[in-house]
Amino acid sequence: MSRIRDRTEDLKDAVRQTALSLGYNESKLAAVLASFIIHKPRQRSAFTKAALKTLESIEALEQFMLKHRKDYVDHHRTTEQERDSIEHEVSTFIKACQEQIDILKNSINNEEANSKGWLGVKADATNADTIAHKHGVVLILSERLHSVTTQFDQLRAIRFQDAINKAMPRRKLQRKANSNSVDTSKSSTSELKEPDEFQPDRLRVQQQLLDDETRALQVELTSLLDAVQETETKMVEMSALNHLMSTHVLQQAQQIEVLYDQVRYFICFPYFFLFICSATVHNVISGFVQVPLVSV
Amino acid sequence: MALNLRQKQTECITRMLNLNQPVNATGTANEEVYKILIYDKFCQNILSPLISVKDLRKHGVTLYFLIDKDRKPVHDVPAVYFVQANQSNIQRIIADASRSLYDTFHLNFSSAVPRLLLEDIASGTLSSDSIQRIAKVHDQYLEFVTLEDNLFSLAQKSSFVQLNDPSAGDREIEEIVERIVTGLFCVLATLAVVPIIRCPRGGPAEMVASALDQRLRDHLLSKNNLFTEGGSFTSSFQRPVLCIFDRNFELSVALQHDFRYRALVHDVLGLRLNRLSLQGEKGGMKSFELDSSDPFWVANGLLEFPEVAVEIETQLNKYKKDVDEVNRRTGGTDGAEFDGTDLMGSTKHLMNAVNSLPELTERKQVIDKHTNIATVLLGEIKERSLDSYAKKENEMLVRGTIDRNELLGVLRGKGTKLDKLRFAIMYLISSESINQSEVESVEAALRESEVDTSAFQYVKKLKSLNVSMASANSASRNNIVDWAEKFYAVTAGVKNLLSSDRQLALPRTVEALMEGKPNPETDNYVVFDPRTPKSGSGSSHLKGPFKEAIVFMIGGGNYVEYGSLQELVQHQQPVKHVIYGTTEILTGVEFIEQLTLLGHKMGFGSSTAAPTP
C-alpha cells in the first residue's frame, strides 16, 4: 500500500508530539508507541472461534471439490462407483457444515434466552448489536456454503446430462431393432406361408410351433427390455429433478436472513418508542429509511 | 482500454473492506474475516450505488451503521470506518474508541485527512487511554459518487449559486474552488491518470483548472505518489484530456424539458443515486434500482419515450412467446404422443426449463419494473403535457424564434408553475434578440400563473450583460464589475445557442478539443499540463488528438448532457470514450430553484402573486 494513502505513521507522529506535551515519561511513551507495531493477541470469544472453524471446514470442502472436479466430470477418469462415492463424501461434508451452522445459530438464541434469565437484566455481552453481528456471521457462513453447493450442483447437472445422453441413443437403436425384428418376423411368417403349401403337414406344424415360440420369446424380451428401460428412465428423471441439493442449503440461508433482518429491525426498536413520543410518524419513517444501505 | 471509473472505485472500496490488505484469490483468507462497517451520510451515498448488502457480506461485513447512530459494543470484531475528514466525525471516533465499542479501529477518510485532525485523534485517544485501539489510518481519495462506468458527481450542493452569488467574497469563492479541486483530484487519483487540462478562459472553469494543475504539480513532486501506484507508464498521446466548463457555458441544457427516457425518469420522477421511489397502486412506496445491471435501462435510456413504450411491448411479447415455448415442450403432453422416447426427451426439456426459469423470471421482473415506471411517467406527461414543452423548446432553440400566440398559449396552458418558468427562460435564451414588448407579455403571463419570476429576471439580466459585453472591446474588459467577470463565460455560451445547429454546444466543443485540429472556438482555450515544467515549450502534443476525455461541468449537470456526450462518442470512428462528471446532478426544478435564489440575491424580489380576493 502506497505510503501516500497510509497515514498511520503520521498519526504515530502526532501521538508522540501530543504525549510529550502531556508530559509522558520515556517508558510510557515507548509503551504507547509500541502499540502501533505490536498488536495484542486478540481474545476471541467461543462463538467467533467456532465460526472461524466452520469457515475453515467450508473452505476445505471447496478445496476437496476443486481437487476432484476433473475426475468427477470426465467419463474416462472415473467409474460410476467412484463418482457416487465422491458425491456421497461431498454430501456428508455439506451436512456436517450445515449442522455446525445450525449449532451456531441455536447458540445465539440460547444465549439470548439465558441472559434474560439473570435478574431480567441483559449482560453487556448480549446487547442487540452483538446479537445482530452474530446473526450476520451465521448468515455469511450460510451464503458461503450455498455458493459452494451451487458449484457442486452444476457438476452434478453435467453428470446427469451425460447420463441422459447416453441413455437416449440406446433407446433409439432399441426401437429400430424392435421394429426391424417385428418386420422380419412378419416377413418370415409370410415367407413361410408360401413354402408351407408345398411342405408335408408334419413339418408345417413343427415350423408353426417354432415360430410361435420365437415370437413369444421376442415379445417377452421386448417387454422386459421396455420395462427395464422405463425403470432406468424414471430413476434418471427423478434424480435429475431432485438434483437441486443446494435448495436445502438455500432454504437455511433464507431462514437465517429473515432472522437477521428481524434483529436489525429491532435494534431500532427502542428508539422507535422515543421517536413516537417526541415526533410525528413522518419523522419515524424517515428515521428508518436512513439506516440500511441498498437492500437486495 | 477505456477508463472505467466505477470499476476502479469499487476496487478501492473492496480493498478498504479487506482492511487495505491485498485481496487474494479467495477474497478473505486472513484472520480478520468478520468486520463492522461504519460510515457517514456522504460516504453512504458513495457506497450505495456501487455495492449491495449481499456484496458487503461477501467481504465479511456483518453489520453496517451510520456513524451518528447510537451503537452498542461488539467485542472481538474490528471496525472499518469510512467517513469524511471533519471535526464531528473525529469526535465521534474518539468517543467510540474511548468506550471500546469495537476491538480495533481501521480509519478510512474519503479524502486526505488534515494534520490538525490527526492531532485531535491523538490527544483525544491518549487522554482516554484508547490509542492502542486505533490500528490504521488511510486516505482513500474516494470523495465522489460514481453512478455509471463513466458518470460521476461530486455531490456538492448549490455550487452554482455560491459561485455566481454577487455578494460572495474572494475567500468564499476560493473555498468552493478548493472543494471542487479536491473532488476532481480524488477522481484522477482513483483513475491514476494525470490528464492534459483544457478550459475556456475566465470564470470558475479557469480558476478550478489552474488550482487543480497546481495541486497535481505539488503532488507529483514526491517520487512515490498516487499516480505511480499502478506502475502504469502512459505516453502523452494516451493521456486523456480533462475539459472543465462552467454551467454558464450552456444554460439551456440544465433547464429544458427533454423527452428521452433516462432524462425523463430523472427530471420527472426524481431518480437519485440510481434509485427510484414510486407511489405503488396500493398506497405504499415502491423502490426500483436503475443501473448498469438492468439491461433494458442500459439499452433504451437514450430513446424517446414513445419508442420506449413500444420496446416494452416488444419485450413483453417476446417473453410470452418464450414462456409458451417452454410450456409446450415440457408440460401437458397429450396422450396421443405419449410414449417412451418422448418421456426421455421431456426430461431433457424439463431440465432446460428448470435452468431457464430464473432467467425468465428476471426478464419478467425487468419488464414489470419498466411497465410500472412508464405508466407513472405517462400520467405525468399527460397531466403536464411535457411532450409539448419538449417539442416547442426544441423548435425555439433551432429557429431562434417562436410565434407570440403560441408562446403565450403554452404559458397559459397545462404544466406546473416551474414548467412554465423553464419554458419562459428557454424562450429568453433561444431568442436571437430581445423583443421588449414580447418579454413583457411573457412576464405578465407568468405573473398571472403566480410564478415567482426572479429566475426569469436573473437570466434577462445575464442576457443584457452579454449584449453589452459583446459590444465592449477587449481593453475595457478590466473595467467590468468584479462579479460580472464571472459571467464572462456567458458570452461564449449564448453565442453557441445562436447557431442554428441544434447540436448542443458542449459535445461540439468536446469533439473539437479531442480532435485537436485548429478550431476558432477552442483555439484560445487555456491548456495545462501538470507533468511538464511550466516554462516548457513543445505544447504541440498537448492539443491532441485524444482518444479519451473527462468532461467536468461546474455548477451542475444532468442526464441530458451525459446522454449527448455518449451519443457523440458512439458515432465516432475510431471509437472514443468520455467520462462525464459534475458538481451535482440537478433536475430542471432544482436548477430553477438556484436561479431563483440568485435572482433574489440580485434584488429581483419575490412578490409576484396578484392579491387574491
Automatic annotation (TrEMBL), chain B:
InterPro entries given in the database record: Sec-1-like_dom1, Sec-1-like_dom3a, Sec1-like, Sec1-like_dom2, Sec1-like_sf
Lineage: Eukaryota, Viridiplantae, Streptophyta, Embryophyta, Tracheophyta
Family assignment from sequence similarity: Belongs to the STXBP/unc-18/SEC1 family.
One of the GO BP terms on file: vesicle-mediated transport
Source organism of this protein record: Quercus suber
Gene3D superfamilies cross-referenced by the UniProt entry: 1.25.40.60, 3.40.50.1910, 3.40.50.2060, Syntaxin Binding Protein 1, Chain A, domain 2
Protein name: Sec1 family transport protein sly1
Top-level taxon in the UniProt lineage: Eukaryota
